[in-house]
Every structure is written in C-alpha cells, then in structure tokens.
Amino acid sequence: MIRKIKTQLALLLMVLVLPTTLLAQENDLRLNVGIPLGTYGKFDHNFTGTNESISPSFIIQLEKNWKPDLSIGAYVGYAGQKHEFNLDEVKYNYYRFGTVLTYELNAWLSEMNIATDNGIEMYASLKTGLSLENRTSSFSQLDAGNIQYISNDTRNRLLFDLGVVLGTRYHFSNQFGIFAELGWGNAGFFTIGTTFAL
Predict the structure, then answer these.
(1) 76 lies in which domain range?
(2) What does the UniProt keyword field contain (predicted)?
(3) Which of 36, 71, 170, 172 allows an S-S link to 186, with CB 3.0 to 4.6 Å?
C-alpha cells in the first residue's frame, strides 16, 4: 500500500513539475500566495461539544501563460483542524498538490459589453489534484485524577481534489498585486492573497 502511494505521488509530481518547467522558458510566470478562509466538505469536521481550532491554511500557485487568455500551472497547499474534548484530541492535516487551468474572462466580458477597463482582471480556474489527509487522535483515561491510559492513533488517506473558483486580480505595479477567489478549490470558500509577476 505504501509503495503504491509513493508511486502515485512520484507520477503526480512529474505531471505537476514537467509542464511548468517546460513552459517557464519564456520567463512569463505568475506566483499567487493566498490564505483560504471558511472550510468546507472534507476539510470541515464538525464534532459537537468540542473546542475547535483551525490551523492557518495557505495555497501557493505558480502559473504560466499557455495560450491567449489561458494559463496552466501547479499548486501546493495546507489546511488543518484540531478538536479537543476534555483530554481527548483529534487533528486533521491536509497536504495538497495539483494542477490548475485558468481562463481570463476580461476579453469575454468585453464582448458582452460589460466594462472591464477599471484595472481589475477577472478569471475562472479549474483545480484538480490530491490531498494527503493525516488524522491523528489521542484519547486519555483518568483514574483518581491521574492519567492512566493514553491511546494514540494515526491514519493517512489520499483523497482526490476537484474544484472551480472565480477570481479577481488587481495590480499595483507590473510585478505586484492582490487577488481574491471564491469557490471550491482552495480548501476554503474565500481566498485572499498577493500575486507576483516573475
């Protein structure tokens, strides 16, 4: 099982790295660094009666112009959650990686006579990849006020990711800007961050 997962990870890394390496020859890259907010689906575990804490999540995405209004790239990300109840604790960590295909919407919106000359770029992205879910739980038993027994359990699962986001970008200069994305593709409903032209 472990050997199968390692083989799958190696193949996925080749799929992620090879396109961006080949396309990076013209030195026309965009780097997005964002913070996803508002968990959903498999990234949101709701245990009644527990104290929940969300680990700071992030997503890093590198894209390259491929065709007019179309870019291709790869992303890595992290999302985490912890639940505590008395002395018991359950942690979920998600290590994410995948590919992204982005379509710039400004030209299409202009054809529909929707003004896009305010400096804001609009786009839609399709993201597909994998999440490695690491679940760690520890349960304790008290006897006369002393901890007598602690049980630890760790489980790993490889999950498929697929999501679509609608985003906007605004550049303060040719190299630096900000972006916001709404949808299901970043382990959060809403993502804000910075974008850099490389």
Answers:
(1) 2-197
(2) Signal
(3) 36
Check residues 40 and 192 and name the one with the higher pLDDT.
192
**Would you say the C-alpha torsion 32, 163, 189, 92 has a positive or negative sign?**
negative
pLDDT surpassing 70 at residue 12: no
Q: What is the CATH number of the domain that holds 186?
A: 2.40.160
The three-class DSSP label of residue 184 is strand
At 87, give phi and psi (nearest 5°): -100, 0
* Closest to 61 in 3D by CA, of 93, 120, 101, 9: 101
pLDDT tens digits for range 168-191:
999 999 899 999 999 988 888 999
Domains held by the chain: number? 1
- Residue 36: strand pairing partners: 191
- Please report the pLDDT score of residue 22 as a whole number: 46
Residue with tokens 């990234």: 43
End-to-end alpha-carbon separation of the chain, Å? Answer: 40
| One-letter amino acid of 93 | N
Burial bucket for residue 41 (CB in 10 Å: 0-12, 13-18, 19+): exposed
Dihedral sign (CA 190, 100, 76, 120): negative
pTM given for the model: 0.78
* pLDDT over 70, % of the chain: 76
Q: What whole-number distance in Å separates Cα of residue 78 and Cα of residue 133?
A: 10
